[in-house]
Structures are given as C-alpha cells and as structure tokens.
Amino acid sequence: MKVVIPGPLLSYTGKREVEASGATLGELLGDLDRQYPGFRFRVVDEQDRLRQHVRFFVNGEQVFETDTPLRPTDAVQLVQALAGG
Amino acid sequence: MARTTKRKAPRRGAAKRPAQARSGGRVVVLVATRKGAWLYHGDGSRKTWRADGPHFLGHIIQHVVLDPRDRRTLLASAKTGHLGPTIFRSTDLGRTWKEAAKPPAFAKVPEGQKGRAVDHTFWLTPCHANEPNAWYAGTSPQGMFRSDDGGVTWEPLPGLNDNAQYRTYMGDEQGGTPDGPKLHSVIVDPRNPAHLYMAMSSGGVHESRDKGRTWTPIIQGMEVVESFDPANITFHDPHCVRLCPTNPDRLYQQNHCGIYRLDRPSTTWVRIGKSMPEKVGDIGFPMVVHPRDADTAWVFPMDGTQVWPRTSPGGIPSVYVTRNGGGSWKRLTGGFPERQAWWTVKRQAMGGDGQDPVGLYFGTTSGELWASRDEGNRWTCIARSLPEIYAVEAAEVV
C-alpha cells in the first residue's frame, strides 16, 4: 500500500511516498523498518505505543493503535504534529 | 560563526605558564544545542576557533562526546520534536554520521503493564580505557544502558532499570526536572572498570562495584529542600557529579541544595558551598574539576532564591574557583558583562580541557559560547546566537 512520509522521516526513505505492506499498522511499520532501518523506533516506542507527535491516518481517518487492521488498498499517511519553537 | 580573539595581557592572578605551553592534542569544543550540534576547532594556542556545523540541524542534541580512547569517534544523542530518541555515531570526527542500529530502549513489559519508554538519552560516558568501544548512557526517564560495540547497539542495565527499590527512588515521570527526570554523571573509576558512580535528578547519587548490576546510595550529608526528609532518597537532586582524575577517591558535586565534596572511603558529603559568598549562594548546575589538581574545581552559580530564576545572581555572571578543595572560593569575571546578563548554564554545559593551563568552556541557554585559556581568569565569547546550549564538552584530538 501507499504510505505518505512526513518531512522529519525523509532522511530514512528519501522520498515522500513509499510502498509497504502489512495486515496491521504494526506490521506495516515493521516492513518500513526492514526497508529503512531505524524508521520504526522513531515513531513507535519500546512499549509499542505510537509516539506523541506523529499522527497516523488511514484513508484520512486518524488511528491510534498499532493493531489497527489494514487492507492492501488502504492509503496510510504519517503527519508531524508539533507547534511552537 | 568562528571568531578570532585578540591576545590580551595576562591579568593579575592569571596562570603563569604560557597558554600554548603544553599540547595533549588540539582542542575541539563539542556543543550540543536544542537545534543541532556544532564543533569548534581550536588552533594550537586556543586563540582562534573554527566553527563546524550545524550537524543535525533541527534535532534536539543533548550530548556530544568524543571517545578519548581513539580521539576520532563521536557519539551524539538526538531526537526531534516529533521523532523518538536515537544515537548517531561518527568515526571520522563528525565528517560522516551513522545512526545506531539499536538505540537505548527499556525492556518491553508484558501486556497489561505500563512500561517506560526512553524520551531522550541525556548523558554519554565512555567506559574504562581497558574496555575499548564500551560506553554507558543515562536517559530520561532515569535509566542506564551500555554499549559494547562503540554505540551501535545498546542494552539496558536491568539491575538498575528494573530494580523495584530504585524505581521508587526515581519517582514518577512527572517528577524530576522540567525537561523530565534524568540519569546523569555516569562516572567510571579509572582504576577499576567495575566501579561506577551515577546520579539521578531526582533520586540521589549511587555507587556500583560490579559494573552496574547492584547499586548503593551515597547521600549522607547531602541536603534537600527545606521541610523535606533527607532520608528519602527520592528528594535528593544532584545536578552534576565529577571525579578528580588524579585522585579518584575525591568527588565534587553541584546539587540543587549546595556544593559538596566527598573523599572516599567516607560516604558522607561535605557541603563546601557554605564558604561561598552569602549573597551569591551555592546553587547551580555544572561542576568542573581540574585534570591534575584535585583541590581545584569551578562552579557557575545560579540564582536559587524564591521561584528559582536559575540565572546569574543579580544579572552579573561569575565563575567561582576553589584551589583548596572548597575551603574558600575566588570570583572570576574577566571578560564577562558587568551587568544585565541573565545567563543560565546547564549542568552539561561547562567543561575543561586537559591543557596546561587548563582551558575552560561554557555555553548559555541564550546561545553564547565562552572560553578561557588561563583557568578562568580571562574569558572570551567565541560564538554568539547559537540555539539554546544544552551541553559543552572540551575534547582533544590528534
């Protein structure tokens, strides 16, 4: 499926849109980590919680858990969420 | 950003040896800031400085440390406002960097339990000279980690991180400093790689004699905020602990509640800050020890009155030095603004080199980097307008 990458993670992927697969958001992030080592820990902590200032959207709807199911036709977007200096 | 400093005539009381008399290597000042890292390369006499940076622009860099065992390898602890924490490693003095394959992370807890997550790596310490490629890291919230492969992969120290008693000393994640509770001042005894010290803000000062498997508090003599119980280890807030290289049985400490000295095997800290001028007090963050004289140490006092402004008392920046183990202190202000300078210097943001005379360096939260090449008698601003400075380390390279 298509995954849209936010600016802070472009140093890993090198491009704005990448292809990855997984039956859940957690699996998708695992595949991204295989393709782009180090990616997963920057957005998921060691207790498998999504990090506070990265937002995950599936087909435009925000999701909050790594066990969120995904279909191959889904579009996933990661967004940075931080304001101020 | 690099500035050329003009040579000034020595002031009365300045160190007598010429500034360029000895060279253990060329000095590089490693500056970690809230928005990236900079390396300031000094010339042989430490008069002019070349800025190399920013590295990791936009990253929150808590600490950059050179491995003194090879004088080439740098580790930098980083995160951004959005992304989780990591470690970057350079083996060519910052020309190229590579991210750690396994940054410090707590053990995952079983389903249904609330596990801790590393917010940032706050402190980096190279291990003993006889343990090449080994490093320790201290984190926020308080945890300790070790790498045996030069910082590529990191493993938690369960004897500390998962110790139920120590978890009570650490308090909860809402406690500690405004930037989060921290484990810092990881010190390796140069005579024995198994003998370690570390400190927690808050959570006291502790010692291990088995490479961190077990720990013992050393808080006797340390004071806590008025009306709190000093027997409660959680209430102790050491800001910075340093061991004297030429007398590893002596430690100095800048604490939330005073300046202390500890001479082992005693386990009782002595509040040597009582001899500071009363109107200045003995509150602050950093502590610097002399590389060859265990009676000499420097502090940078902060205003710890009322709401804790944590700025130079009265808006008049001063470094204080003791040359007699804390029996007395001398004010050093040569080159500093004389008024309206409300500086804050964080606990990691002041250090010294190994040259003779010793060079001292500190960075302010307002982004100024200051240097002295005569042990603090005369100071020069070598960089302005940097981001908020978190850490300053003076390293020596070949």
How would you briefly describe this protein structure?
Chain A has 85 residues and is an alpha+beta fold. Chain A has three helices and five strands; from the N terminus they run E-H-E-H-H-E-E-E. In chain B, 3% of the residues lie in helices and 37% in strands.
Explain what you see:
- The complex is a heterodimer of chains A (85) and B (398).
- With 85 residues, chain A is an alpha+beta fold.
- Chain A contains three helices and five strands; from the N terminus they run βαβααβββ.
- In chain A, 24% of the residues lie in helices and 24% in strands.
- In chain A, strands 2-1-5-3-4 form a five-stranded mixed sheet, with no helix packed on it.
- In chain A, strand 3 and strand 4 form a beta hairpin.
- Chain B has two helices and 28 strands.
- In chain B, a hairpin with a 7-residue loop joins strand 26 and strand 27.
- Chains A and B meet through helix 3 of A and loops of B.
Quickly list its features.
heterodimer; A: alpha+beta; 3 helices; globular; B: mainly beta; four-stranded antiparallel β-sheet; 3% helix; 37% strand; disordered N terminus
Show the helix and strand layout.
The complex is a heterodimer of chains A (85) and B (398).
Chain A: E1 2-4, H1 10-13, E2 17-19, H2 25-35, H3 39-43, E3 54-58, E4 61-63, E5 75-80
Parallel strand pairs in A: 1-5
Antiparallel strand pairs in A: 1-2, 3-4, 3-5
Chain B: E1 26-33, E2 36-42, E3 49-55, E4 60-66, E5 74-79, E6 86-90, E7 98-99, E8 120-126, E9 135-140, E10 143-147, E11 155-156, H1 158-161, H2 164-170, E12 182-188, E13 196-201, E14 204-208, E15 216-217, E16 238-244, E17 247-255, E18 258-263, E19 270-271, E20 284-289, E21 297-301, E22 319-322, E23 330-332, E24 350-352, E25 360-363, E26 369-372, E27 380-383, E28 389-397
Antiparallel strand pairs in B: 1-2, 1-28, 2-3, 4-5, 5-6, 6-7, 8-9, 9-10, 10-11, 12-13, 13-14, 14-15, 16-17, 17-18, 18-19, 20-21, 21-22, 22-23, 24-25, 25-26, 26-27
Biggest interface, chains and residue tallies = A-B, 20 and 20 residues
Please give the number of β-strands of chain B. 28
Assembly of the depicted chains: heterodimer
Work out the helicity level of chain A: 10-25%
- The low-confidence parts of chain A are none
Distance between the termini of chain B: 24 Å
Tally of contiguous helical segments of chain B: 2
Tell me what portion of residues of chain B adopts beta-strand conformation.
Answer: 35-45%
Shape of chain A: globular
Helix and strand content put the structural class of chain B at mainly beta
Radius of gyration of chain A: 12 Å
Helix content estimate of chain B: under 10%
Radius of gyration of chain B: 20 Å
Task: Output the helix-strand order of chain A.
Answer: EHEHHEEE
The largest sheet of chain B has its strands arranged as 3-2-1-28
The major pleated sheet of chain B works out as: 4 strands, antiparallel
Shape field of chain B? globular
Uncertain runs of chain B with pLDDT below 50, 5 residues or more? 1-23
Distance between the termini of chain A: 34 Å
